[in-house]
Amino acid sequence: MAMTVRLPPELDAALEKLAAARHTSKHALLIDATSRFVAESRKTERVLAAVDDIGIDYAEAIRRLEDA
């Protein structure tokens, strides 16, 4: 799906400079950055779900530690 991305001028200039240094396009850099962001967000969701599970599994032990 096509979309338009409007960047502040200073960010666009920095992206242009980085793209030139890496011999790639701004588009390719944005795709890479977006992919990394989505992957990191998924990892964060999995970690938070695991923490929730640990809290449930060890709720009694946690309560005892709080009372100590």
Automatic annotation (TrEMBL):
Domain of life: Bacteria
Pfam families: RHH_1
Location of the Ribbon-helix-helix protein CopG domain: 4-30
GO biological process, alphabetically ordered: regulation of DNA-templated transcription
Stretches of the chain forming a coiled coil according to its record: none
Protein name listed in UniProt: Ribbon-helix-helix protein, CopG family
Provenance organism: Microbacterium hatanonis
